[in-house]
Specification:
This protein has eight helices and 18 strands. It is α+β, with helices and mostly antiparallel strands. It folds into two domains: 13-197, D-amino Acid Aminotransferase, Chain A, domain 1 (2-Layer Sandwich); 200-334, OB fold (Dihydrolipoamide Acetyltransferase, E2P). The longest helix has 11 residues, at 243-253.
């Protein structure tokens, strides 16, 4: 590629904040998809992930959409998402990372991806990363013709409207708001933006743990919630313990370890009746997914940001043990679920000038 900005390049990142900041920011919804840098040089289009891994082969239909929508030579920063009904569908997006070409082609037809652009790094022969965001955004909103699967992210400079988006857009599958300094340059790999994400708490059952890569200490607690039928559903993990605490947890949980061959909700024959741990990681097929099963007798309180289908979207954070709670009382009915919101109202009309307006 003969672009002024060439792959690989790290995207600019965001640091967390408890509230929407004010004073010279451009605010955007926080899209829940795959962060992606798009490089186009004529017929050559490459998609790069946040971690530097190529995404191009997994989204052939998106390559076609980008070829139709974008100018011949440009570099964009944005998010790949899959829309199902009135919400973002992260599970459908994750399914696209598949080794079989035939499967990828089938899913490309069934669940076509959309690229939501929120920054432009280069256009023609000009590197735009040194320009302030306000100027880059003016270039972005005029960059390409309307296209159903290539969009410009909605944005505003009004912090009150951003707070409204934070409260309402979660119902469409988004997970917060991002604030970007209007006078800021594009700084690859640096946390130069601000993200405000939803956080909630829940009481969950601890029914296992995975070992840490550093040795025979706890890497993450494995968490469950009871379905109405009384079946313990695996909902995710809680980590971020200190090294000393990881070692302490091994001894603390030792009396609960289930002997080999003894019945446990997440071991034995899988009848498909509930979610269990141990599925393969599409990004790292060689990763060890084994775990130490525990009798589901202890309850802890965790902080989480978002529920994806029937599990936590990201790792939860351990807060405290709850000896006052019975495991059987830990069900989905305790969770605070956002009101439904139509994603079409977040994306706005296909007219790019309208979709990027506050």
């Amino acid at each position: 590629m003969a672009l002024p900005v060439i792959p690989p390049i790290e995207p600019m990142l965001a640091k967390s904040a408890a509230a929407v900041p004010t004073g010279g920011y451009l605010y955007e919804p926080k899209w829940d998809g795959f962060r992606c840098l798009v490089f186009r040089d004529g017929d050559d289009i490459e998609l790069g992930s946040r971690g530097g891994k190529p995404l191009t082969r997994y989204f052939p239909e998106l390559i076609a959409s980008l070829a139709e929508a974008l100018p011949p030579r440009c570099v964009l920063d944005g998010e790949i998402v899959v829309v199902r009904g009135s919400r973002l569908d992260f599970d459908g997006l994750s399914d696209r990372i598949h080794p079989a070409e035939s499967r990828i082609r089938l899913l490309a037809e069934q669940t076509p991806a959309t690229f939501v652009a929120f920054d432009v790094l280069a256009l023609d022969d000009e590197d735009l990363m040194g320009r302030p965001l306000a100027q880059r955004h003016e270039v972005l909103v005029r960059l390409f013709a309307p296209h159903p699967h290539v969009r410009v992210s909605r944005s505003t400079q009004d912090p009150d409207l951003a707070r409204t988006w934070f409260e309402t857009f979660e119902g469409a599958g988004l997970d917060g708001v991002v604030a970007k300094p209007l006078d800021g340059t594009y700084r690859p790999g640096e946390r130069a933006m601000v993200k405000v994400k939803h956080e909630r708490t829940a009481d969950v059952v601890v029914a296992g743990y995975r070992l840490h890569k550093s040795g025979p200490v706890v890497g993450s607690l494995m968490l469950g919630l009871y379905l109405e039928a009384g079946v313990l559903n695996y909902v995710g993990g809680a980590s971020a313990f200190t090294t000393a605490r990881r070692a302490e947890l091994v001894d603390e949980l030792a009396p609960l370890v289930v002997p080999e061959g003894e019945e446990h909700p997440w071991t034995g024959e899988d009848d498909g009746g509930h979610r269990r741990p141990g599925t393969l990681n599409r990004w790292n097929a060689g990763k060890d997914r084994s775990f130490v099963a525990l009798r589901p007798e202890r309850v802890c309180e965790v902080r989480y940001d978002q529920l994806q289908a029937d599990r936590f979207r990201h790792s939860a954070r351990f807060l405290r043990w709850r000896p006052d709670r019975q495991p059987e009382s830990c069900g989905y009915d305790q969770l605070d679920l956002p009101a439904a919101y139509d994603l079409a109202d977040v994306l706005g009309p296909a007219d790019q000038s309208a979709s990027s307006a506050g």
